[in-house]
Design brief:
The protein is an alpha+beta fold. It contains 1 helix and 9 strands, in the order αβββββββββ. The protein has an 8-stranded antiparallel barrel. The N and C termini lie far apart (about 45 Å).
Length: about 120
């Protein structure tokens, strides 16, 4: 029983290390776009803009990333940027900022989405 528990812990550690390596590689690249067929596990927070566009964000506190689904259906992974209590996720060309039930998304320095929780 103890041996199986030890194996389980080792397997989880190896998975976490592999995920961190992938995330480090993602942070060094402009952004990681996921295939449209990717299934994301977790609860999404949905935001709606005034013009009816929708943005979904799934937070993964374990890996400190946000998986963002844009209104056109594309998904990307953004690493957390530590700036206090606000939720800001950023890579080399995309920034997501969540604050007080609202969200702003910049791509290459231009605001492309502004909305509030649905």
């Amino acid at each position: 029983m103890k041996r199986q528990h030890y194996r389980s812990i080792c397997f989880k550690s190896i998975l976490q290390i592999a995920l961190v390596c992938v995330l480090i590689a993602c942070a060094a690249t402009p952004s990681l776009t996921l295939p449209g067929t990717t299934r994301v596990l977790g609860v999404a927070i949905s935001y709606r803009s005034l013009d009816g566009k929708r943005l979904e964000v799934v937070h993964d506190d374990t890996t400190r990333v946000a998986i963002v689904k844009l209104s056109d259906g594309t998904m990307t992974i953004l690493p957390l940027e530590n700036i206090g209590i606000e939720g800001r996720y950023r890579d080399n060309h995309m920034t997501l900022w969540e604050h007080d039930n609202a969200v702003l998304l910049w791509i290459n320095g231009e605001v492309v989405f502004a909305g509030t929780i649905e």
